[in-house]
Amino acid sequence: MKQRIRTMMDVGMAFKAGRQAKGWTQEELARRAHVSRSWLAQVETGKPSFDTYKVLATLQALDLTLWAVSK
Length: 71
Fold this sequence. Notes:
Residues 15-69 form the HTH cro/C1-type domain. The protein is mainly alpha-helical.
């Protein structure tokens, strides 16, 4: 599944979709990504700033890849 990521809301939607596709709760994903559930909840709702390490850890837990593509 490809999803264009341009905003933090897009990141949050990708996390939520990936989590739901796996049948995981926010708590389960947070545990697997070693982040807090509250942080994950904020990101899933489009929190405007984030910790890059936590974003990458969450992508890894979901087995998602982030690509940077120039136009």
